[in-house]
Amino acid sequence: MDLHDFKDVAENYDRYLSVMYQDNDNHDGFREFYLDLARKYGAGGVVDIACGTGAVLLYLAERGIDVDGTDLSEEMCLVARKKAEQLGLQLRIVPADMTKFHTDRKYSLAIIARSGFMHLPSSRLQRDALLNIRDQLTEGGILTFNTFDPNPALQAEMMKTGPEDYSFRLEYVNSQGQREKIYNAMTYDPCSQLMHGNWKFETLDEAGEVIGERVRPLLMRQTYRSEVFLLAELCGFQVLDIYRGYLGDKENLSAPNDGVNHTGNLIWIMQKK
Ligand SMILES: C[S@@+](CC[C@H](N)C(=O)[O-])C[C@H]1O[C@@H](n2cnc3c(N)ncnc32)[C@H](O)[C@@H]1O
Fold this sequence. Notes:
Largest sheet: 7 strands, mixed
CATH topology of the largest domain: Rossmann fold
CATH class of the largest domain: Alpha Beta
Number of domains: 2
Mean pLDDT: 94
Strand content: 25-35%
Shape: globular
CATH superfamily of the largest domain: Vaccinia Virus protein VP39
Distance between the termini: 35 Å
Radius of gyration: 19 Å
Strand order of the largest sheet: 3-2-1-4-5-11-10
Number of strands: 11
CATH architecture of the largest domain: 3-Layer(aba) Sandwich
Helix content: 25-40%
Order of helices and strands: HHEHEHEEHEHEEEEHEE
Bound molecules: S-adenosylmethionine
């Protein structure tokens, strides 16, 4: 089980994410970014893969985009479905692994938003996902996903962190109306390129005393740019664009670099060949 498979995480995900990203410039405009892509490439249908609680899925559906959702976590799908019902939207939201899912239709655009792809823990599974998603796309269909550009300085910091070296991340109010503090302890293994560790949720009473604690594991893989180019080639995709964040800034594809400029969040746009 990983972080998002837990009911308590799914039910609180929107609440703590809104605090986590409130002062994060890298995150501004993500919904509009995907809406623009959907309007450009999604005429043949859109699938939001690893849709989570529906941040992108519902935004697109509310604006008239023909979109389905899928996510490995049944708990995340349940929350997304409940939100869709509250909005009066009839959507197909199916629990499934992106390395295997298939439906009775094809899509002209597949979106994996906000790090879903990074939850695949090996290059083999990344390949399986890309090959499978390619099969779900129409001819010339588009796939987009993001990677965090590996940064050696941050990796070195993470390599010093042990499983109990928790850092405070944020405080928010959970779905029961209780204050909670979130801490995480993530380490990095340069051989497997895996970031792994735990998120700790502490529930507080009104006086600020800790009255409960839940620890949830998390595993994510860092992927270098050169690997993504190779994966694309191996799986029958052509990289069209790489955006640095959601505000339209692009990488120069004729001068790709690995480990030179660390731009943080890279958003890949690739086309089925
Ligand atoms: C960081 S969340 C992002 C959710 C959503 N896209 C958003 O923008 O809020 C990552 C999601 O990836 C899902 N996930 C992880 N591994 C997956 C897999 N193999 N197939 C499908 N979904 C997966 C998790 O369940 C989780 O909901």
